Description:
Blueprint: E1 2-8, H1 27-44, E2 50-57, H2 65-78, E3 86-91, H3 98-107, E4 111-117, H4 121-126, H5 133-146, E5 150-156, H6 163-174, E6 180-185, H7 193-199, H8 208-224, E7 228-231, E8 234-236, H9 243-249, E9 254-257, E10 262-265, E11 268-271, H10 276-281, E12 288-291, H11 294-306, E13 312-313, H12 314-321, H13 325-328, H14 330-338, E14 342-345, E15 348-351, H15 359-366
Parallel strand pairs: 1-2, 1-9, 2-3, 3-4, 4-5, 5-6
Antiparallel strand pairs: 6-8, 7-8, 10-11, 11-12, 13-15, 14-15
This protein binds S-adenosylmethionine and iron/sulfur cluster.
Residues 11, 14-15, 18, 20, 22, 57-59, 92, 115 line the site of iron/sulfur cluster (SF4).
Amino acid sequence: xxxxxxxxxxxxxxxxxxxxxxxxxxxxxxxxxxxxxxxxxxxxxxxxxxxxxxxxxxxxxxxxxxxxxxxxxxxxxxxxxxxxxxxxxxxxxxxxxxxxxxxxxxxxxxxxxxxxxxxxxxxxxxxxxxxxxxxxxxxxxxxxxxxxxxxxxxxxxxxxxxxxxxxxxxxxxxxxxxxxxxxxxxxxxxxxxxxxxxxxxxxxxxxxxxxxxxxxxxxxxxxxxxxxxxxxxxxxxxxxxxxxxxxxxxxxxxxxxxxxxxxxxxxxxxxxxxxxxxxxxxxxxxxxxxxxxxxxxxxxxxxxxxxxxxxxxxxxxxxxxxxxxxxxxxxxxxxxxxxxxxxxxxxxxxxxxxxxxxxxxxxxxxx
Length: 367
Ligand SMILES: C[S@@+](CC[C@H](N)C(=O)[O-])C[C@H]1O[C@@H](n2cnc3c(N)ncnc32)[C@H](O)[C@@H]1O
Ligand code: SF4
């Protein structure tokens, strides 16, 4: 089964660290975009049943209820959405309201992801977030009444973030009983305002060792509160792993609609334009098309699956792509197992729980 990603490239203000495809625009542009986006969804529609739909951004919670309902209706028209389909939406705390929660629920959305990042107001201000901790507290205890399956995003490696801050944030967030928490390590993206400030030495980032300490502290706290790590940055209560994320990590296929959205269908990768002007005028021809070779597909499968806690299913890899990793990489696998970097769990090869922080080097050995 395939999935669908829908991109909403609008934000109230650009956060200083963010280089995702999102802009601050007026209501008129948003209206034109939604019309075009719905036309693209309908054009891409095949009627097939979808495993998941993810409305991401940008800030989808900036859209009004009519706009969201229009997107959901176009999706239902174009594909088959059954009760098993996970439909998620990304929200910022200050633009999420009870009225929107009701509309999401009525429209069939069954999972919400809220970008909190931190509950320390000085840090939120320093990274250019538009919301405060109060915005989070105002809405957090209302979410579960409408959509019980919800996630909070937090970040580590932020300027001036201490382990105490992080644990304080996690403790308060967990008190609202989310089913899922993502803990992302800040990536300093070149070209962002934060990048410039760091280079000008106006802002100092924590050193790499301290970020690893923050990660370990967050990991222990989350695990001791019943959130299992199922990917390096993702933690969930049992039964609440994000189906859409898993689709990416398990090399599943997906359609992408909207600005800069990627698709992976029949071994080919497509990417829509990232120019709003072009998108509004265009006819949805992808501006980039790549047919993955067999060895690229194998590499990608290994890379993505090894980032997850359940690891790489070697039998599926052989059946789907004809690659017997156990035979081809026997020396490397033996060495990694002997040195307790990876372990075998049935047909799967998994990175040992305490070695996730060196996952990139481990994966390199398997490629
Ligand atoms: C692209 S945002 C979309 C959701 C929403 N606009 C928000 O920011 O809350 C999804 C998540 O990506 C993460 N993110 C964005 N930029 C990042 C960066 N440079 N490094 C690490 N994580 C980042 C944040 O945790 C954010 O919640
Ligand atoms: S709100 Fe989210 S998508 Fe928008 S600029 Fe901030 S991090 Fe990026």
